[in-house]
Amino acid sequence: MPRAVRLNRPLERTIFAGHPWIYRDALVPFEAEPGELVDVFDKRGRLIAKGIVDAGPIGVRVFTTQPRERVGVELFRERVSAAFALRARAVPADTDAYRLLHGEGDRLPGVVCDRYGEFAVLKLDGEGVLPFRDALVEVLAAPLAELGVRGLLGRTSRKQGAEVELLWGSAPPREVEVHERGMKLLANLWEGQKTGLFLDHRESRARVRSLTRGLSVLNLYGYTGGFSVAAALGGARAVTTVDVARPAIELSVRTFAQNQLEAFAHEAVTEDVPQFLKRAAEAQREYELVIADPPNFAPAQAKLEVALESYATLHGNALGLVSAGGLYLAASCSSHVRMSDFLDSLREGARRARRVLAILEQTGAPFDHPRLLAFPEGDYLKVVLVLVN
User: Fold this and answer.
1) Contact residues for 44 (Cβ-Cβ < 8 A; gap 6+)
2) Rounded to an integer, what distance in angstroms lies between the CA atom of residue 42 and that of residue 298?
3) Residue 88 contacts by C-beta under 8 Å, 6 or more apart in sequence?
4) CA atoms of 162 and 158, how far apart (whole Å)
5) N or C end of the chain, less CB within 10 A?
6) Which is nearest to 203 in space by CA: 91, 335, 334, 339?
7) Which of 16, 44, 64 is the endpoint of a domain?
8) Segment 221-274, tens digit of pLDDT
9) How many CA atoms lie within 13 Å of 329's alpha carbon, on the beta-carbon side?
10) SS3 assignment, position 335
11) d(CA 304, CA 302)
């Protein structure tokens, strides 16, 4: 039977609206191991939610507020079925790399599953859902097979040891070729960041591809070169990819070759971005489109102030390399940075670079990364495209 826990704060409306986390300090102190099932009651003894105990600040991950629903295999199966049906309706043509399960957004808190062609990766966030891994694999096996997936890897976070293991089916090779709107991308599912690629930038890559005919492009923090290849296929005349990780840069070069772009004017640079920006400014280099998608500058709320200064510095230095009338695409992947904060950092960067900006587009993660309206923490990705003068 689920253990009973009680709220010590009036969070009923927030929970009923769909917020999937109950922080430990909002609960009457209790003793339970991560992975235990709990029923959450309010101060008046009413059943408010059912969920799974987690470790750390998040005390309970909420899976349902319906009294008749039970947390377990059947509920997992219903949620997985709904999530897969959503993707089937809206996956772009010629695309076999996308997010199948987006944790809280698909009402499976802590559970992420990404498809990479014939393979998939399951990533579990937090200790609470780890005991349910086998049950999740059981639920996923049949619908994955229907999609043509023949192998499922399991990945854990750095806090959990960053382990990767085969959970079901056949093991993928070291590098997997996938397709995104017909563009070929190479992903390392065993060692790459995230689950292999930054799938949440699919629509941003498509936007870049639509804008780059005849332009010179600089892709900062380029990782494996997704934006770079998109720019080249869009007709850019030259592309520079910068990343500090040599394996990522080497993979970007192979990705260009995979798209029959061996002869394209691609400069692949293994260097820390601030150093590259300093050298480029001293050489008075200019680009007609600069893309800056840095790693998470604010992994915790306590780092927010430092992060916003880092963003402003990056924007200022990057904008200094954009030619008059050129474009700048800036992104933040931090859930702790609100869009208004990110725009403020962009405004400050423009002031330092003495540039005038016009916003052309503000976007976030695409449809396969749904965000709960009551869970602003899940709206992590900010992307802003501006005209630079």
Assistant:
1) none
2) 33
3) none
4) 4
5) N
6) 91
7) 64
8) 999 999 999 999 999 999 999 999 999 999 999 999 999 998 899 999 999 999
9) 28
10) coil
11) 6
Residues 230 and 154 in one domain: no
d(CA 248, CA 271) in angstroms, rounded, equals 11
- Nearest CA to 111 among 96, 98, 97, 130? 130
Asked whether residue 222 is assigned to any structural domain, the reply reads yes
Q: Assess if residue 163 is contained within a domain.
A: yes
Please report the pLDDT score of residue 303 as a whole number: 84
Where b means 16+ CB within 10 Å and e means fewer, 237-266 reads ebbbbbbbeeebbebbbebbebbebeebeb
Pair 210, 90 in one domain: no
Tens of pLDDT along 81-98?
Answer: 999 999 999 999 899 999
Backbone angles phi, psi at 28, to 5 degrees: -60, 130
Q: Is the pLDDT of residue 161 over 60?
A: no
Split into its structural domains, the chain has a count of 3
Run of H or E residues at 120: strand 119-124
Query: DSSP H helical segments within the chain, as ranges?
Result: 12-17, 73-90, 133-146, 202-211, 226-233, 246-258, 273-282, 304-319, 339-353
Confirm if 221 and 311 have CB atoms less than 8 A apart: no
Domain residues for 317? 198-388
Residue with tokens 């499976």: 108
User: Average of pLDDT values for 191-220?
Assistant: 95
Taking the model in full, what pTM does it have?
0.94
- Taking only the tens place, the pLDDT of each residue in 53-74 is 999 999 999 999 999 999 999 9
Residue 156 lies in a domain: yes
- Of the candidates 197, 217, 204, the residue with the CA atom closest to the CA atom of residue 287: 217
Is residue 252 a contact partner of residue 268, using CB atoms and an 8 Å limit?
yes
Cα-based distances in Å from 23 to 9, 288, 324: 10, 46, 48
Of 244 and 193, the structure prediction assigns the larger pLDDT to: 244
Site of tokens 């698909």? 106
Residue 291 is part of a domain; what is its CATH number?
Answer: 3.40.50.150
